[in-house]
Write a structure and sequence with these properties.
This protein is mainly α. 48% of the residues lie in helices and 4% in strands. The protein folds into three domains: 11-185, no CATH class; 271-369; 399-479, no CATH class. Helix 2 (40-53) crosses helix 7 and helix 17 (421-427) packs parallel to helix 20 (457-464). The radius of gyration is 44 Å and the shape is elongated. The N and C termini lie far apart (93 Å).
């Protein structure tokens, strides 16, 4: 049925055309009564016509899902219009539109039931195999051609009926086609969720957004970034400023607005922002939290962040609780260490005292390290390094002690008191000799040969025996080989 020429919309077409619904058996290309859309732009004209005609209502055929063919369905159709071939995955549409997987499936089903999509290949969902996406072809319903008086022709008589092409349009449908062309050229975006005091009510804004998609008259002409114009006049509530305010040519509002911008150019963080800020600082400053997920650390430290703790407060508390040498799961350890922390240090004064104690401990540790380094430098000046063997270190320390005693006027030792290495080895008692051999065996087990090789060969054989000397020589040769590596456990 071709409607009479009207200047408004397709109200007559809606009244005389039957309901638009394609059953599941006819949702294939081979069984479809529509024709293939030549490109995405022409197909979007048909989509906007279906959205504004009201011929298709989902709730007529099911008790769940969307209630109408609205802006969300048009947004899904916009993504499909850009695909060639039209083979969208549900995951792809979820990422592009921000909808849930179930919502995407609902709107794809609505497009098929409205005759705008037809299956070419249906996707597979086989357990254990990769899921295959369905491939569609964009269709123009036959009701669209009838409503606008579009003439079609089948150029090849042997070709299927769905390959027919448009060859003309009735004069009565030209105005409506032009309006649909403008709608197809615009992008329908996701509506804003935030409300403004100057914006209309939620229901009025939603209706205006839906009119952007469904209406075909030019009464409401607005972009997705703004709402339709209101029919109420605000001239009655407008108050003109006095002439003194207009002397400089600048009109100022009697109630100046307060700027939301802060002095530093950044807005004040909310609760979630403070959690993420503290978590990011913890992952950067604490070595055993480096590389962990910031959202996870933010959830672990949410209680202290909500209590107003800073990074310094957390460090002081961790020092108070004690730090572990080996950390396997940093987020779990942090959750244990921060348990009930906001109740123990519940006031800023307590947190300040903990910080001072922590800084005092750090200063004491720093001074102790400086003292140790200074003592080591004074004790061992030059390039000489202390021996690794404990027994040799004891002997060296005893020698240094004797030198210091001589420098301070102590008893000078006679040259005859100290003999050569052979006499020293012979003068050792049985207990001292056994202790020295046991020490050498322990060092050999660790790969250390300094105690044995420190003596001459003959003296070492007389004191330690041929077996220990041979083992020491083998370890020395292995230590200088590039094929082996000696490590300590």
């Amino acid at each position: 049925m071709i409607p009479a020429a009207r200047s408004s919309s397709d109200d007559v077409a809606v009244a005389v055309l039957p309901a638009l619904y394609v059953p599941e058996a006819d949702q294939w290309l081979s069984t479809s009564t529509g024709r293939i859309a030549p490109e995405g732009y022409s197909w979007m004209q048909a989509v906007h016509w279906v959205a504004g005609s009201g011929l298709y209502k989902p709730r007529r055929y099911r008790s769940h899902g969307p209630r109408s063919f609205g802006p969300t369905t048009v947004r899904v159709a916009q993504e499909l219009a850009q695909l060639f071939p039209c083979r969208p995955g549900v995951g792809y549409l979820v990422r592009r539109t921000g909808l849930s997987e179930r919502s995407v499936e609902y709107h794809l089903g609505m497009l098929r039931e409205a005759g705008l999509l037809a299956y070419i290949v249906r996707g597979t969902r086989i357990s254990g195999e990769t899921a295959q996406a369905s491939e569609f072809t964009r269709m123009v319903p036959v009701e669209f051609d009838q409503a606008l008086g579009i003439r079609t022709v089948l150029r090849d008589e042997d070709a299927p009926a769905y390959t027919r092409a448009a060859c003309g349009i009735a004069e009565a449908g030209r105005e409506l086609m032009a309006k649909l062309a403008k709608k197809a050229a615009r992008k329908v975006r996701k509506p804003r969720s935030k409300t403004s005091s100057k914006a209309p009510a939620k229901g009025a804004r939603r209706g205006a957004e839906q009119r952007v998609v469904t209406a075909v008259s030019d009464e409401v002409r607005c972009t997705p970034m703004q709402v339709g114009t209101s029919g109420l006049s605000t001239a009655g509530s407008t108050s003109l400023p006095p002439e003194s305010k207009l002397a400089s040519g600048v009109s100022k509002s009697p109630t100046p607005k307060k700027s939301k911008a802060k002095a530093g150019g950044r807005r004040k963080l909310n609760t979630v922002g403070r959690r993420f800020q503290l978590a990011r600082e913890l992952t950067q400053e604490l070595g055993w939290l480096r590389g962990y997920s910031v959202p996870r650390i933010a959830w672990v430290a949410r209680t202290v962040a909500d209590a107003g703790w800073t990074l310094t407060d957390v460090k002081a508390w961790l020092h108070f609780r004690g730090e572990a040498a080996h950390v396997r799961r940093g987020s779990g350890l942090l959750a244990v260490l921060l348990a009930n922390a906001e109740n123990v240090l519940d006031t800023p004064a307590k947190r300040t005292a903990a910080i001072e104690q922590w800084r005092g401990t750090q200063e004491a540790a720093r001074r102790d390290r400086i003292r140790q380094v200074r003592a080591r430098t004074e004790r061992y000046e030059g390039d000489w390094q202390a021996p690794v063997s404990r027994s040799v270190r004891l002997e060296v320390e005893a020698a240094f002690a004797q030198v210091r005693e001589l420098d301070h006027g102590g008893r000078r030792q006679d040259p005859g008191d100290v003999g050569d290495g052979q006499d020293a080895g012979l003068e050792l008692g049985a207990e001292e000799l056994a202790a020295l051999i046991a020490t050498a065996e322990g060092e050999l087990m660790q790969g250390e040969t300094t105690l044995i090789t420190g003596f001459g060969k003959e003296t070492a054989l007389r004191i330690f025996g041929a077996d220990l000397v041979r083992r020491a020589q083998q370890i020395e040769r292995l230590a200088h080989s590039s094929l082996t590596t000696i490590r300590y456990r």
